[in-house]
Amino acid sequence: MDINGKPYGLAVLLAAAAPHANAETLILNSYGGPYEEIIEERIIRPFEDKYKIDVVYDAVGSASQDYAKIKATSGHPGFDVVVMTASQSLEGCRDGLLEPLHANAVPNLSRLSPALAHVAGPCGAVHEVQYMSLLYRTDVLDTPPSSWNALLSPELKGRIVLPTFQNIMSVYLLQVMSVINGGDLVSNLDPGFAAMAGVARQSIGFEQSSAILETYIKQGEVWAMPFWNGRAQLLVDSGLPVDYVRPAEGTIPLIATLNVPVGAENKAAAMKFIDFFLEKASQEAWVEGYKVGSARSDIEVPDEMRSRQITREADLKGLLLPDLSVVAEKLSEWGERWEREVVTAAN
After folding, report:
1. Taking the complete model, does pTM exceed 0.70, yes or no?
2. CB count in 10 Å sphere of residue 341
3. Which of 56, 73, 125, 296 could form a disulfide with 258, with the two C-beta atoms 3.0–4.6 Å apart?
4. Residue 318: its pLDDT value, please?
5. Residue 130's beta-bridge partner residues?
6. Residues 335 and 207 in one domain
7. d(CA 61, CA 63)
8. Residue 242: domain span
């Protein structure tokens, strides 16, 4: 059984139900909610049409849970491609559990920003870039919040929800709160933990899934919370009375990667899928559909999107960029401290 209480063979069973019995099959593990709908329409179907490879979509687990499954199975989790973040990509490469990616098998790797590609390491292909924004209800907050410390304001008491530590957004929020309160990103997080204990006392609790987190602000129960800017833009576009800001103190980018476990059964198909996702047309379709940034600087992006997304290497200037290899080493220690000092504060 996996950490979600489901059999490791689930993806294999799903593969047996693929529509073309004689076709090559690729098992893709990623996220549910709007992500699943958009990737199905803009990436998976065009890929299947081009290569005649059936893609089985396994929307189980967060990035941290997915890597835990890869680790627990020694690189044989039952899926061929997984969507994670640069932190897991670096850790998995270091642990020898993820397949190194090379330009001879994935030619479009050479079209990615060198700076972003370096952050993800040799086992990760950067397929999107977001950043942690501050999402808020425009119908109750007349003035847009300009600082992350707005989460500590009295008017937001009982109107905040926070991600669990298993969601990397909580780590980024911890690091940002550390920096703006006199600490730093990795070596001195004491001010961050103290600030987050205060934010936790303001909150109604913790949720792991972004899909669940956003239901609170949709329903008006929550008035402000950290949220990925791409997902935030989808909410804005839906007509909800919400908007998002990049606070004055800065923020941390989410560098999302496509990875292949070392025990993947369909590695050739996996490399084709990753290369297809990184194609110029695919990146343009993904950026437009999911409202995220790209590691390719040569894509065509509407001006209104460029102003709010990371689509050029120059957009990284002014962002807070922690050493993700150090973050990966510290996550377990920080997670235990989060439970002791932040979660207990909320209780």
Report:
1. yes
2. 15
3. 125
4. 72
5. 254
6. yes
7. 7
8. 130-253+320-346
Same domain, 328 and 341: yes
Task: Report pLDDT for 308.
Answer: 80
The answer to whether position 4 is within a domain reads no
Find out whether 13 and 260 touch, Cβ atoms under 8 Å: no
Q: Which residue has the tokens 């377990």?
A: 332
Range list of H helices, 4-155: 10-16, 34-39, 45-51, 63-72, 86-94, 114-120
Give pLDDT tens digits for 213-253: 999 999 999 999 999 999 999 999 999 999 999 999 999 99
Does any domain span residue 1? no
Say yes or no to pLDDT of 65 above 90. Answer: no
Distance separating alpha carbons of residues 85 and 264, to the nearest angstrom: 18
Which positions ≥6 away from 168 have C-beta within 8 Å? 63, 64, 85, 87, 254
Alpha-carbon gap, residue 125 to 276, rounded angstroms = 11
- Based on C-alpha coordinates, what's the Rg of the chain? 20
Separation of alpha carbons 260 and 258, rounded Å: 7
Count of domains forming the chain: 2
| Tally of CB atoms within 10 A around 276 | 19
Question: Do 40 and 118 belong to one domain?
Answer: yes
Residue 317 confidence (pLDDT) above 90: no
- Residue 131 phi/psi, 5-degree rounding, is -145, 155
Inside any domain, residue 47: yes
Q: What is the CATH number of the domain that holds 243?
A: 3.40.190.10
End-to-end Cα distance, the chain = 31
The pLDDT assigned to 272 comes to 98
> Which among 184, 190, 34, 166 has a CA at the least distance from the CA of 88?
166
Q: What is the DSSP string of 277-315?
A: HHSHHHHHHHHHHH--B-S-SSS---HHHHTTS--SGGG
Amino acid at position 266, single letter: N
Averaged confidence pLDDT in the chain: 90
Q: Which residues, other chains included, contact 155 with Cβ-Cβ below 8 Å and sequence gap of 6+?
A: 141, 223
